[in-house]
Amino acid sequence: MLLVLALIAADPCASSLCTATSTHFVVYTDAGPLVAERTLHDAERTLQALRFLLGDLYSAPAEVLPIVLFSSPGIYQKFAPARTAGIYRSGSNWLTPDTVLLAGVGLSLVLSHELVHRATHRLTETAPPCVVEGLAEYYQWLQARDDDLRLAT
User: Fold this and answer.
1) pLDDT 10s digits, 31-62
2) What is the rounded (10 degree) CA torsion for 102, 105, 108, 114?
3) Which end of the chain lies in a sparser environment, N or C, as judged by fewer CB atoms within 10 Å?
4) pLDDT at 110
5) Are 44 and 37 contacting, i.e. CB atoms less than 8 angstroms apart?
6) How many CB atoms lie within 10 A of CB 83?
7) Residue 127's pLDDT band (boundaries 50, 70, 90)?
């Protein structure tokens, strides 16, 4: 939530901050309601794929995950490392929840990648970074449909 307030403060001209919510995610963006809804849909599909793939190993967290989508990469870079299109930040306590930041519109693969980071972080916090990054790179290509799971090309 603090990040959302920072988004508004970073660009006071962005008078229309849109949200889209589900039981698992809340998307905040200044890119409009259609982008918010599409991002929420993509996040839910990725969660569905992870549940299908990991089965009992993965249970969705009880807390809602904030996803902040910046329409301006310039504003995004005030909060994230250089040369990234998205980032997953693990919350350290109840004041700073887990958060996903995205650097623009149309980054569904990046969103999936960051959600895989969240899933692997929940499964193990001690995996080597190369394993965590490799899993995120591989599984970002998962696509869930109503009753099957595919690797996109």
Assistant:
1) 999 999 999 999 998 888 888 777 777 776 77
2) 0
3) C
4) 92
5) no
6) 6
7) confident
Q: Cα(40)–Cα(151) distance, rounded to whole angstroms?
A: 20
Q: What is the pLDDT of residue 123?
A: 77
| Residue of 146, 151, 144, 89 lying closest to 114 (CA atoms) | 89
Phi, psi of 139 (to 5 degrees): -80, -5
Q: Which residue in the block uniquely carries the two structure tokens 């998307």?
A: 27
With a threshold of 0.90, does the pTM exceed it? no
Per the listing, tokens 């229309």 go with: 16
CA–centroid distance for 135 within its chain: 16
- The top-scoring range by mean pLDDT among 38-42, 88-92, 138-142 is 38-42
Greatest Cα pair distance, the chain, in angstroms, is 45
